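[Meeting: bench + compute handoff]

Bench side (C.D.) handed over the final construct sequence. Compute side (W.E.) agreed to return the predicted structure before the next meeting so the bench team could plan truncations. Sequence as handed over:
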Amino acid sequence: MSAEQKRIEQHYSNQINWLKWGPYLSERQWGTVREDYSADGNSWDYVSHDAARSKAYRWGEEGMAGLSDDKQLLCLGLALWNGKDAILKERLFGLTNNEGNHGEDVKELYYYLDSTPTHSYMKMLYKYPQQAFPYSWLAEENRRRGKQEPEFELIDTGTFDEDKYFDVFTEYAKQSEEDILIQYTIYNRGSEDAPIHVLPQLWYRNTWFNGEARPEILFQGHNTMYLRCNQLGDYYCYADGNPEALFTDNETNNERLYQAANEVPYVKDGINNRVVNGDTAAVNPSHEGTKAAFWYQYTVPAKGKVVIRLRLSKMKKKTPFHGFDQMLASRHADADKFYATRHTAGSTDDEKLVQRQAWAGMLWSKQYYNYNIKRWLDGDANEPVPPKERRHGRNSHWKHFVAEDILSMPDKWEYPWFAAWDLAFHCIALAPVDADFAKNQLRLLVSANYIHPNGQLPAYEWDFSDVNPPVHALATWIVFNIDRKRTGKNDLVFLEEIFQKLLLNFTWWVNRKDSEGNNIFEGGFLGLDNIGVFNRSAPIPGGGLLEQADGTSWMAMYSLNMMRIAMELALHNKAYESMAVKFAEHFLYIAGSLANLGEDSLGLWDDEDGFYYDVLRKPDCSWDRLRLRTLVGLIPMFAVIIFDEAKWQNLPGLTERLDWFMNQRPDLVNLVSRWKDTKGTETHLFSLLRGHRMKLLLRRMLDANEFLSDYGIRSLSKVYEQTPYQYILNGADYSVKYTPAESDSNMFGGNSNWRGPIWMPMNYLLVGALHRFHEYYTDDFKVEYPTGSGQYLTLAEIAHALSKRLKGIFLRNEKGERPVFGGHPKFNQDEHFKDYILFYEYFHGDTGKGLGASHQTGWTGLVALLK
């Protein structure tokens, strides 16, 4: 057992709290719903990037390369100044949804390079220009550009062309759970000496505004700060070298923001004002406060470096830097040994690099998430009452919701809030390195503090009442099996706990999203933003009802995964056998509805095209099948499970009931794949697709002229590039064109695009479905790949080929380039760029270039699991 694995087991057996400290700071607290106390709910304008340095937050904190305790009482983050910027670089800069030509977008270059699950070792890189940071230029140029033009990024400004920048590496290593070594290594990549100010900052989250005891930071001389807090306990922070200590308070600068008197003499932006503006009165000469910094000033030699060391410890130390370098090296070596046991067998060095950075990004993207909706609606004690409009606005029906947890975030800048289906995929990707954390995340989402009393799961902070695809049961089953395979543990308590809560959620879906009671589900946009003809989050123009192939297929998948979990539990507790029966029958009814068997529905399968389509049910009772080929029509492939003969025979109640059902409704049973028969490896198959329909879908999916890209499966058929799909409703034209990069319109927000790009989580599910189909059909079943090639492969071989295409987004190709970089020479060729990977939100449908949120490692991290 590796040293890191021992730490993991010590933590989850409640011996040592190795996760007391971690990278739990957000990278953007401003512009979030939690910090918005406006009447109109315009979160982006209520607290801006410009205001952030001066405003004390209510719900959480942000910082660069930062860490905090698990209640985010004490924070540590890095601030930098190149001597030219108008402000300290304390937080990452980006554009709001209204400023960017393709929506919100961080405009910085930073990389998560390493982290162990217990954060015993972590490493991050931030690239800081030596010239003035082009804040205004980035904002103005993106504002000038339209939807048809690409985003204007920091690299496009020429800032890095002559290597006039610093590479700032941050490393953390834990001596023990409350003794943390911190090292900053700053490289001057330029050919001239360059000045830099480095300010490691410590501050307490402002909890005293609500009446709690006020903590304090005191200077004790000899580069030592004493941090005193009733809730957290006392700590010491030691600094190496000869920095100056600066102190202020984490209090709002009312004078700057609101032209009102400050309540205290020293405010949040005091350190900024001291360093940048030379205002000596901005910091406390008594060397005490609730925010402090060690101020280092260096001229870094050309091509040279400087190293800064700190130590944050619960213990008082006479020689805090004795053995520092050896401990840092030891924890790094521990990380190497841990990941050596996690890398896929036979991986190349480049594959290992991508896999490790993918997991690093996920582990760095944990965040302290604090949101009490009732208190947010009512207002805080000793603070003004929020506007009355809030009482009936965003999330007002979720007053039970209380979160104060460490959560896996999609992207701590662009999406610094959880999303229900993102989180499920995060758990799948994290399970091979920390299955216990993954299981606890799944538990959180169905806990009483999160799940609505009516059974709905909260979708995401901007609208908890929206609907994400129901993938929680799938994630639960996959995480359970990853854990079982690696450890040999059969965590039935976890499985049962989640299953019981998901019964509530499944019932909510049936009651709320099947409005006609015909097992055809609506669901709304279901996380796929603009994939449809209409805005699926809004009512159909002119009225009507959209019966969705994806909503219905997700529910078929949900039914099968609940059935599979119930079967596993029934092997140990026969009471669950009847639940397996219930979900098996529900699945069969959904299959019938999808396949045109409903008396009052067209059904969603189209025999002529061999594809699944949405159906628009109009107010005049007429129907239109919307023959737009999108990923929606491939989602029925996800509804597939296999189980072996031994389990089948051990559940006689299930088999007897299904035999009875087969006699009563052979029309339904004949729709689905061979659930009664065994084949090959003595397995049974439950699926929406029999072999014939699956081949018809795969004919489209594996066609390079439709869905098959060199980098995975596109979200929209490429046939609509030259001939857009057109649908006229009430005189309005609802055309859809293949758009392989960012969205070219403002439709549905415009910063995510499902009309052509490649999305990793959906591709991951397709690959998994092919593997499951192959396990049943074996090598006897072959399909043409690619369509029209004359080459026939097994489903497992096709799954492997798709995985190779997806991994190829990040790996060096025959030219030595990584497609994710979009052909940029600096990223592909420069020794200080070419091996640092960004895991984007989605990818160009033709080139594989990374698009959307640049650090959405959460579900793109699934690439680490592809073989």
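W.E. noted at the follow-up: The mean pLDDT is 94. C.D. will use this when planning the next construct.
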